[in-house]
Amino acid sequence: MKVANIGRWGSRRLLGDGKVNEYEKExxxxxxxLASALGCPNxxxxxxxxxGLPFSVNAQLAVEYFRTLMDYATPKGVRILIYNCGWGNIxxxxxxxxxxxxxxxxxxxxxxxxxxxxxxxxxxxEMYEYGKYIGHFHVKGTLRIRGHxxxxxxxxxxxxxxxxxxxxxxxxxxxxxxxxxxxxxxxSEGAKGDWGIRFTRDFIxxxxxxxxxxxxxxxxxxxxxxxxxxx
Length: 231
What we know:
Number of strands: 8
Helix content: 25-40%
Strand content: 5-15%
CATH superfamily of the largest domain: Divalent-metal-dependent TIM barrel enzymes
Number of domains: 2
Order of helices and strands: EHEHEHEHHEEEHEHHH
Largest sheet: 6 strands, parallel
Structural class: alpha/beta
Strand order of the largest sheet: 1-2-3-4-5-8
CATH topology of the largest domain: TIM Barrel
Shape: globular
């Protein structure tokens, strides 16, 4: 089975004085080595802010950290992706992307619609505006009612516009994986967890161009990497 993405979330990569946490950097390097050995094209991470520093300074410190990872990863055939979540990460939306991405050619975004929804963002416009940078895509449902997050259900049982979202990926000629992420405790364990993965796989499958239409011997998108073979 192909490994589409390896990542680390929530780590404190910058210390309180703004210097790099060498232990965390070495952990990132080790996973980049693993990705390279497995033929995995992507390593996903973020970079935390340093308390007390202006946003512009924090963003530039993050750029320098990502550049260090990129310099290490690129010769090994691994692309650095920045996740679009604020957990231990200051570069997660337009404000940070507009600073970081122009300075880091080749660095991309690991995109999860639910993170944009849960910060009350416009995910369809965000995907359209930055879709050319998306290198890995999570299929994770989310549901908000009167401003409250309901335990994230499987995609297809939520309120995300999945058809429109996948259409935007096609617009940007996305050929990465569609990775299922069972997220809430309600839907990640037991019978509901197993059923939810199969439900989402079958739900999202209808949006994926099959080999016959792609014309190049493979699906337009390679499919789902959630413990199941490709469709």
